[in-house]
Amino acid sequence: MFNWNSVPGEDNEKLIGFLRGDFDIDWAENAIITKSRDEMAISSSKDEYSAEIMMDEKKKKAILNIHDDITHELTVKEENNKLNIYNSPANKR
Q: Cα(1)–Cα(13) distance, rounded to whole angstroms?
């Protein structure tokens, strides 16, 4: 899916593709992507639309909140000293 440490940055397109492909979030294409100061949350927003991915303390899972009313659990895997984010199988269509 995408590398947590590379967003915002080189994996922005992977994050956008993930949001568009797995969750039909078309507005993500032109969204502004930011990371919180503590690097525990990634936000994507455009106009009145928003999505936020929040990492848990142990960095074992993350939660995707879309428009504050849709929630999806994501899988976090440490691979080659990088935190990679994957959609949980239960979320896939």
A: 10
pLDDT tens, position by position, 50-66 = 999 999 999 999 999 99
The sign one gets for the Cα dihedral 90, 2, 19, 34 is positive
Residue 25's alpha-carbon distances to 11, 38, 83, in angstroms, are 17, 26, 23
Q: How confident is the model at residue 69 (pLDDT cuts 50, 70, 90)?
A: confident
Residue 64 to residue 74: CA distance in whole angstroms: 7
41-46 β-sheet, strand order? 2-3, 82-87, 70-79, 61-66, 49-55, 41-46, 32-35
Residue type, 47: D
Tokens 């936000």 -> residue: 43
CA-based nearest residue to 34, from 12, 2, 1: 12
8 A C-beta contact, residue 10 and residue 90: no
